[in-house]
Amino acid sequence: MTRVVKKPEVRRADIVEAARDLFGANGFEGTTMHDLMRELNVAKGTIYHYFKSKEELLEAVINNIADESIKRMEFIVDETTGDALTKIRALVSAGRVADNNQDLMQQLHRSTNAGMHARLLAVVLQQQAALYAKLFQQGHDEGLFQLAAPPLETAEFILTSIQFLTDEGIFPWTGETLLRRAQAFPSLVEKQLGARPGSFDFLFPRM
Amino acid sequence: MTRVVKKPEVRRADIVEAARDLFGANGFEGTTMHDLMRELNVAKGTIYHYFKSKEELLEAVINNIADESIKRMEFIVDETTGDALTKIRALVSAGRVADNNQDLMQQLHRSTNAGMHARLLAVVLQQQAALYAKLFQQGHDEGLFQLAAPPLETAEFILTSIQFLTDEGIFPWTGETLLRRAQAFPSLVEKQLGARPGSFDFLFPRM
DNA sequence: CAATGATTGACCGACGGTCGGTCGAGAGGT
DNA sequence: ACCTCTCGACCGACCGTCGGTCAATCATTG
Q1: Which residues of A touch B (CB under 8 A)?
Q2: pLDDT tens-place string over residues A123-178
Q3: Minimal CA–CA distance to B185: which of B159, B167, B207?
């Protein structure tokens, strides 16, 4: 095979990108290193030159997705002007990881990928919590919220529940269950934040 | 090998029990079907006679653990007399899945087992939520709580956060992080339930 | 042109899973 | 009580696949 030499950073990025696509299309366990080397037109050893195991490659893919997600969210917060509630609203509507990773999410819904999924959730969550914490603090300062606990812990608390309970990846919730929960979220969040009733109605947009 | 015939239920239970032990000791991926057949003194085909895949066996193990857990908790609720807060306190102190599955939990702390772990959490959670929902309702009726949403959704919301955020299995939180969160839980829960400040101090017992 | 290190691909051992076949036990006939 | 006959629990050699290894090879750089 014709030998192609690339700069290490480039090759590394190529591998992560291809892995991300394949994991998204076929799942982690459903993707073989052979699939990956064929996709990349690269020998197996090359991949193992950059990642010492498939597991480590998964780690890199997860961080890649998470980093992209958090950057997008930070950008949204920065470009949005207004009070905390306005910023939160903008963030929520654009913040679903699912939207920009449609096929990935579809794969994550297979229970075999629960591991990959849970780990991705955990990383994304920690990053998002820091972001929301700032907004909660702002809202508190603006008199919109009455927090009972530090902003970061409050953000972690709320985000964790919403992510896990709305995510069909780890456990296949039924449609009714999801609806039932979605309807309860506004009240739950308002209560937790001490926000005005109705201020989080946007969490469950009736159509 | 000497052939031993058992009643199907017995053999099935034996397999689940042994699998539970081995998964607990070495993790799901760290346990081979060969290990299992050696432990059971049984041929590989026998295991596959009862479970069509390793994956399906995992499912059975998870349900086995979850069932045992929920039965213990239901028993505790039944034998405890008093108001909702008293029952909740009893439940929490005995309800940690970790306590009665020490080595299992230790294994779950390996990120390779995130899948097994997340799925177990999901099942246990759904069962526990139903139980706590009853107590939240009782507390509401007794005037101890002021719920902002239906009891079941409230229970799911709270339990999910606490389980996920205190569990080191999926993402290895640091000790400080765990402490920081534990300190915030009482306030967060009280706020969510509309309970008297201090009534959930038992969630974070200072030593 | 030598040194470096990126790249190759044949090779390996372990693993999950299959399948043709064996054998014990209970049902039903005599 | 004894003998079949049938069912399905049980066996284990075998298979294909997969993650991972490594010595050789080749492009690039100084």
Answers
A1: 55, 111-119, 121-123, 126, 148-150, 152-154, 156-158, 160-161, 164-165, 170-171, 180-181, 183-184, 187-188, 190-192, 194
A2: 999 999 999 999 999 999 999 999 999 999 999 999 999 988 988 777 778 899 99
A3: B159
